[in-house]
């Protein structure tokens, strides 16, 4: 039996992060990231976007199809739903910073038109990409970090995180999280990803739950 060909081990994102970079320099450097294999099929790196003085950072899972094509986070249907929910609790999207735990779109292709179907990143992808997220948070120094979904929660709080058990709670940001330079006493608030609301059988109830969780974060900011 022929030997199974192993993928070469990659160094992770840290190799591409320039020391002392600001957000614009990080965004530019991320274009060249080869920290995991996801760059091979993605259109481009989708880095975070928003106010550099944001008090709140929203972390999603990974770019979707529209985000991959446009190069911006949360610009598809899930992003529009998120904008509506944020406005409802009094958080202005323009005052926030939005990013993802994984910066490249992971997908499979199926059907006659080869439609690109979302595929959840695995822990290896989350770990490889985490230095970008850490670098963003170190610069932004937010008061509240909102984890949108299980992947974001695991990236921020570790593999034992469960969104079903910890959503809507004010979780102190771990002091050993590795975000050098973080000065504030920040909190993480977890909720479901907006795309889960769009897939829910009872969308109205799922949306109300998302809004309730976001309101916890909004109360800290207000």
From TrEMBL:
Cross-referenced InterPro entries: UDG_Type-4/5, Ura-DNA_glyco_family4, Uracil-DNA_glycosylase-like, Uracil-DNA_glycosylase-like_sf
Record keywords: 4Fe-4S, DNA damage, DNA repair, Hydrolase, Iron, Iron-sulfur, Metal-binding
Segments traversing the membrane: none
Residue runs in coiled coils: none
Domain Uracil-DNA glycosylase-like: 47-215
SMART domains (alphabetical): UDG, UreE_C
Gene Ontology BP annotations: DNA repair
GO molecular function (one): metal ion binding
Pfam families assigned: UDG
Entry protein name: Type-4 uracil-DNA glycosylase
Native species: Carbonactinospora thermoautotrophica
């Amino acid at each position: 039996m022929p030997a199974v060909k192993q993928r070469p081990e990659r160094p992770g994102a840290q190799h591409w992060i320039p020391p002392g970079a600001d957000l614009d320099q990080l965004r530019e450097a991320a274009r060249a990231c080869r920290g995991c294999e996801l760059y091979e099929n993605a259109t481009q790196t989708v880095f975070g976007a928003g106010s550099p003085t944001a008090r709140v950072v929203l972390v999603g899972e990974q770019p979707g199809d529209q985000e991959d094509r446009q190069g911006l986070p949360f610009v598809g249907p899930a992003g529009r739903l998120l904008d509506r929910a944020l406005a409802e609790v009094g958080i202005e999207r323009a005052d926030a910073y939005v990013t993802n735990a994984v910066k490249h779109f992971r997908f499979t292709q199926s059907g006659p038109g080869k439609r690109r179907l979302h595929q959840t990143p695995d822990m290896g992808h989350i770990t490889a990409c985490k230095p970008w997220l850490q670098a963003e948070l170190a610069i932004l120094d937010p008061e509240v970090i909102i984890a949108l979904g299980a992947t974001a929660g695991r990236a921020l709080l570790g593999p034992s995180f469960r969104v079903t058990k910890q959503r809507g709670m004010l979780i102190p940001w771990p002091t050993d999280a590795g975000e050098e330079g973080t000065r504030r006493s920040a909190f993480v608030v977890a909720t479901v990803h907006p795309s889960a609301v769009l897939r829910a059988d009872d969308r109205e109830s799922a949306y109300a739950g998302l809004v309730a969780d976001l309101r916890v974060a909004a109360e800290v900011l207000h």
